[in-house]
Amino acid sequence: MDNPLIYNNPYQAGELETYTVTGSGNNLDNPDWGEAGHPLLNLAPLEYGDGYSTPAGSDRPNPRVISNALAQQDQLTPESRGLSNWIWAWGQFLDHDLSLTPDTRDRPITIPVAAGDPYLDPFGSGQVGISMGDTVFLTDTGTDPTNPRQLPNEVTSWLDGSMVYGSTPERIAGLRSFSNGKLKISDGAMLPLFDGSMAMDNPTGRPSGNLYMAGDARANENPILTAVHTVFVREHNRLATDLAVAHPDWNDEQLFQRARQINIAQIQSITYNEYLPALLGKGDLEQYKGYDSTVNPDISRTFSTAAFRLGHTQLSPAIPLLNPTGQMEGTPLSLSEGFFLGSKLLQQTGIDPILL
Length: 356
Known about the structure:
Blueprint: H1 4-7, H2 10-13, H3 63-71, H4 86-98, E1 103-112, E2 129-135, H5 162-165, H6 169-175, H7 223-246, H8 252-280, H9 301-305, E3 318-319, E4 333-334, H10 342-349, H11 352-355
Antiparallel strand pairs: 1-2, 3-4
């Protein structure tokens, strides 16, 4: 049976509605809600040290001490439900669709480490600190207690595939081939190799030749994440190929937008029908009751910085490589050693052994 998603012509019926790449215009009453660059929502009162700009916590317990007390473990905790690495891989892929609030090393912050910390200061020097960058904030905020710092979400708040396509016109244009509705790829149908035309995170200072380009700057962070990005670029191009066969009169823009629309819908379907039930339990999600224009879809600080960090507790230290029969093959990839190795690693293994 012909796939109606491919063979139906939404252009002819006037039914094709596409997301703007910036996320604007989704809510007609509030067109900037969910837009890239919009502030994160504040669900609780802000408690800056000075009331509007400096870090809080000088009169609170040391966060590193709290972390050690709550997260101390000397062995792995088995996943009791038998879930695979896909549970955190999809969670990270999804998270990068919803939120990005970068920091800046121009304003460094140091978290003091207690002398004798078992991992960071085992010899008790008392001179160790955890260095990090202060969070980027909207420049017209943080002036006084009546105008505290507000933090921008640099990607769209919608579940709209921004990690595949980007959240700015410049990024999506840099990823498109502008031929037959397809996205750029490199040899082996891998992500396009980094060419300096767009920002890609590389905090470990790997050679730029190790990096791929993608809709989200964090795509090279670990091999599984990069592999999932690759799957959905390939899927976009597969859809574009099938659409071109079904609609030989369509131009590049029509093919691209329809393939993008279907690809986004698949990401949404996997999230709501597979990922969330696996994470939260089947039946724990309220039934959809229809569109409500009064709901602000912007991501909250609470969700971005606390609640959805749960994925960090699900990580495995190594990524097994499996053959098509599901058997272990070769030495598992060390997660920590695979950070930002991108093309150098995946060109050797391919993505199949990582994702099976």
